[in-house]
Protein: L-lactate dehydrogenase
Amino acid sequence: MNFTYFNRNELKTLGTKLLNQYGMPEERANITTELLIQSDELGFTTHGLSLIPYYIPELQAGKMQEADDVVIVNDTGSTFVWNAQYLPGIWMMNKAMDEAFSRIKEYGVVTASINRAHHIGCLSTYVKLAADKDLICIVSTSDPAGKLVAPFGGLDPVLTPNPWAIGYPTSEDPVIIDTVTSICTFSKVREHLNTGLPMPYPMLQDKKGNESTDATVINDGGAILPIGGADYGHRGYCFSMMVEMLTQGLSGHGRADDVSRWGGNVYIQLIDPEAFAGLAVFKQQMDKLTELCLASRPKDDTSPVRVPGQFGLDCAKQSKVHGVRLNDETLNRLQKSAQEAGIEFPKPH
Structure:
């Protein structure tokens, strides 16, 4: 995959101008672009600035600014439930994280469940925000209107990929676990739909249940397979049910409402290690775990064991030196969006 590097501030200006020009208030556009860039810096190219060309039609259709603010459904202090009213999901997540941060020292554990959000982007960015503050964070999301993933043993898509992430601090870099309950995200499928390239291995099934590397089957009654695939997909299926319980059951909005509009339900939990055995001993235990994993003899001497999130954090460090990298597909789409908006595109770094 080819990459072109750009100045971070110039990309942030571009993204903010694009979103603002199509109707997103400047402050929300600025926050959204900042977190999208952080996603690119962590190596999540499918959830970074590449999303802006997909957000623009939503903004043009008035689907991201139909309300002034979130609605508080319930608030107990240590828990809160919001109706996000389909406002910009990344901005909303930043707002929810700030709210949780403001309460964590008082309660030790703060949990939020949010319904009717717009797309919330990359989960790693949020759990890293918490880990950088010496907190543990769990985030998961689902779309009650989405039907992309087949339950294990079934033909018909019922579930969404249902991503979840956990981040926690160590004495050095945080550990960031970010995955989905299906073999891949829909963004990855969309990437292959755009390029026309086959999936690297059978991640989907067609409408008859045959495993497939052809991304187009998703548009003809096919489905993404759960983690474990055709043979062991019961594992991913179980995790998917868990995510929908946390995001839809606790938020009070889900498939029982026969939702037709695309959107995201979210579960966030912050945990302060100081409210348990203490931060110092927590880091001591997690440092040892990291040490043991990294010391495991590699099957391939050229590919040593890594801990989750290590690759992304390495990418972020490289971004500080070389600039933010964009792959060709993202670059082409952003350039087209900028041209249509009459906004000058930055030169490569």
About this structure: The two ends are 18 Å apart (CA to CA).
